[in-house]
Amino acid sequence: MDWRDVIDELDAGVERIAATLEGLSPGDLRGGSGLPGWSRGHVAAHIARNADSLWNLLEGARTGTEVPQYPSLERRDADIVAGAGRSRDELVADVRATQARFSEQARSLPSSAAEAPVRAMAGWPHPAWYTVFRRWNEVEAHHADLAAGYGPADWPEPYVRWSAAATLADLAALPDRLLGEPAGLRITATDSGETADLGWTPGGPEASGSGRALLGWLSGRSDGAGVHLRPDGPLPVPPPWPYEPSRFREEAGF
Fold first, then answer.
1. Residue 161 has pLDDT above 50, yes or no
2. Closest CA to 125 of 133, 134, 117, 114
3. What pLDDT is recorded for position 1?
């Protein structure tokens, strides 16, 4: 997809998050989420602060002055904790307002600035326009993390097509030392035919499933339902997701 088309997808995704949050009671918001140690309020606060952090990267690209995604990991964590205890209405308003601000910044980004290099908090570089795709992963994955009835089965098909393909390509490009348990595996999306060979050799183990099932498993948002392993056995635990985008490692200047 063209990155500008994804902005509308983000707006729709955040509206779905807002609707989910509006259906939660105060007790639900303080209840556990799909992320260990975080309440649903923590997840909602993170969704909002992530929009702000990616706005920072676009602002840096626009002005030509590097702006870090977050001032520090400690500041990131403190801001999430500070926001987690807000009321439902405050969290909903925060999630909506920060997405609107990010979308406005992305839609108005000049073409020259869109190609400017920015840097993720993890350290890897990418062109500014890729922040829109990074935000897409954040919106859909963290909606599932609210553990409030929305999961991989509900992810929009355009998101699944993009993220499943990107996830397989990026996983296949990870250094062997980062593959962990899936090392030696071949993973195949049965609907698209896309594969990731993780040091696989003929006769080695293979995992297969739809792109949706694979994305749920590899992103840690499902237990691997719909993914089949040959020979039979427990699915390996994938490395932390999302992975560094492999396409930019091969391009000059990145």
1. yes
2. 117
3. 87
Determine if the peptide bond prior to 231 is cis (ω within 30°). Answer: yes
- The pTM assigned to this predicted structure is 0.96
* Residues 222, 149 contacting (CB under 8 angstroms): no
Looking at residue 250, what is its pLDDT?
Answer: 64
- Rounded to 10 degrees, the C-alpha dihedral 43/180/225/196 comes to 110
Decide: 180 and 236 in contact? Cβ < 8 Å. yes
How many CB atoms are closer than 10 A to CB 161? 17
- State the Cα–Cα distance between residues 215 and 223, nearest whole angstrom: 11
Instruction: Break the chain into its structural domains and give their ranges.
Output: 3-151, 160-230
What's the rounded Cα separation, in Å, for the pair 254 and 247? 9
Given this structure, which CATH class describes domain 3-151? Answer: mainly alpha
User: Quick check: bond before 242 cis, omega within 30?
Assistant: yes
Backbone angles phi, psi at 253, to 5 degrees: 90, -10
Class of domain 160-230 (CATH, top level): alpha beta
Read off the pLDDT band of 254 (50, 70, 90): very low
Q: How many residues are there in the chain?
A: 254
For CA atoms 181, 195, 134, 249, the dihedral sign is positive
Shared fold status for 3-151 and 160-230:
no
